[in-house]
Amino acid sequence: MKKLISPLDLTTQEIDEILSLADRIMENPTAYAHKCDGKILATLFFEPSTRTRLSFESAMLSLGGKVLGFSSASSSSASKGESVADTVRTVECYADIIAMRHPKEGAAAVAAANVECPLINAGDGGHQHPTQTLTDLLTIRRLKGHLDNLTIGFCGDLKFGRTVHSLIRAMMRYEGIRFILVSPKELQIPDYIRDDLTAGGFDFQEVERLEDAIGEMDILYMTRVQRERFFNEEDYIRLRDSYILDTEKMELAKKDMIVLHPLPRVNEISVEVDKDPRACYFKQARCGRFVRMALIMKMLEVE
Ligand code: CP
């Protein structure tokens, strides 16, 4: 596997192998400390990031490799008008594997079409974020023990949230998954995802009030309203506080429900919820480093 643009580029068997490798790395990280000696990862981030970029860099450093890259378009020659295609063709001369984030949907596919080396989509606009999905799947499998027969609620900005789009697509391949989609009407999932859920005969419902559905969920996947993808600030301000998960709402949830969030959080989860043992979003962020170690190893074929 040379390019990862969407979670569907991986078979469920390949996902299983990556998650199992990540589990093994978590148990004994020192055994993997030299797997990528002499290899270089380039992180090309045309859009801000904390977790994805730093966990990729931590992953490669933890495997004995080296990293280079940029953390904003303004510090690269994109600011002079260079195309994504020319950028990655150049970076391929300096690195063995590329992780790229870009604000435009489809940019990762353009980049992938222009390089021979492995390339990973680290988020393209409101489209897909496959390594966040691998992180989410690893977290769910470790905490719930399985990836099937689960009711998963997605809450917040389901229109622009690429982590939501990627995880729904990935979870559709497991048996017995029920989706509860909680959002204001203006931030509902895109039609193409709803069409896929309908065509596939999936059990899904769309609701506006979190309180009405939280009690049925095994997993609650909270999301931030994506300010950077709105066309005007007024709409963002009107919608940004649509959902705030607090201790009162947590009382309505199952005792073994887990709360996930890809982060960054703004104010959609009250900080008082962090003390609840069901709040698992920092465990989730930790998983990101190990699943990316596993993915880099797979893509560089260094197992
Ligand atoms: N979850 C995630 O993609 O976070 P960053 O934007 O900080 O990378």
Give a quick rundown of the structure.
With 303 residues, this protein is of the alpha/beta class. Helices cover 35% and strands 16% of the residues.
List keywords for this structure.
303 residues, alpha/beta, Rossmann fold, 2 domains, five-stranded parallel beta sheet, 10 strands, 16% strand, binds phosphoric acid mono(formamide)ester
Word description of this protein:
There is one protein chain. This protein is an alpha/beta fold. The protein has helices spanning 12-27, 51-62, 84-91, 107-112, 130-144, 162-171, 191-199, 233-239, 247-250, 281-300, and strands spanning 3-4, 40-45, 66-70, 97-102, 119-124, 151-155, 178-182, 203-207, 219-222, 258-260. The strands form 2 sheets. A 5-stranded parallel sheet has the order 1-5-4-2-3. Strand 2, helix 2 and strand 3 form a beta-alpha-beta unit. The model has no long low-confidence stretch (mean pLDDT 95). Bound molecules: phosphoric acid mono(formamide)ester (CP). Phosphoric acid mono(formamide)ester binds next to helix 2.
